[in-house]
Amino acid sequence: MIPYGMSNFTDVMEQNCYYVDKTMYLPLLEDQAHYLIFIRPRRFGKSLFLDMLRCYYDLSQKDRFQSLFGDLWIGKNPTPLQGTYQILYLDFSKIGGGIDDLARNFDAYSAVQLDEFLHRYQKYYDDEFVARFLAAEKGLDKLHMLDARARRLGYRLYLIIDEYDNFTNVVLNERGNDIYHAITHADGFYRDAFKNYKGMFDRIFMTG
Question: Domain spans of the chain?
Fold first, then answer.
């Protein structure tokens, strides 16, 4: 079966769908800069590639390596980084709303995804931190809390962002350059988000 429109790597593997193996590029990516942007047209397979990255590097899926990757190139040539990261996965195409709501919606989406992150890796954090983290309302507060605790414990964090330019392109097309500039430059909330990401994550991979 050809997995047209499918972006879940686990489903593709478990349903025995046709898959073009791109795992031989993983060692090459690891030799590049730690912060990468991959820009390609729609329907190029970017989302599926990102989900493959997540499955490969995700600490919580380390034990599934052979079942997911055993028949692929990387299954016979794993790198030392396989299964060593706690991964925050964001899809900015999920963020929308009017211009006055974007900052709030961005923070709310971030908060939900950070809660999901903590549920996935909850066993690596103490109960007091988990309770305090989940009680925080703002995504930015959760991000700062995670940064401080993961840094203290020596955990390696990987940020994967799909459609990083999705909602900003909508703003540019519909509201013009001035509004776009206000969001992405100076003290715009989108620029501030990346300022926080930069010092927090060991690796960042984005597509758009």
Answer: 9-207
CB-based contacts of 97: which residues, under 8 Å, 6+ apart? Answer: 104, 105
Run of H or E residues at 86: strand 86-91
pLDDT in tens, 56-107: 999 999 999 999 999 999 999 999 999 999 999 999 989 877 777 888 999 9
DSSP line for 112-179: HHHHHHHHHTGGGS-HHHHHHHHH---HHHHHHHHHHHHHHHT--EEEEEESTTHHHHHHHHHH-HHH
> What pTM was estimated for this model as a whole?
0.89
Rg of the chain, C-alpha, whole Å:
18
- Give the span between the Cα atoms of 38 and 55, in whole angstroms: 18
How is residue 5 written in tokens? 């429109």
Max distance between CA atoms of the chain, in angstroms, equals 51
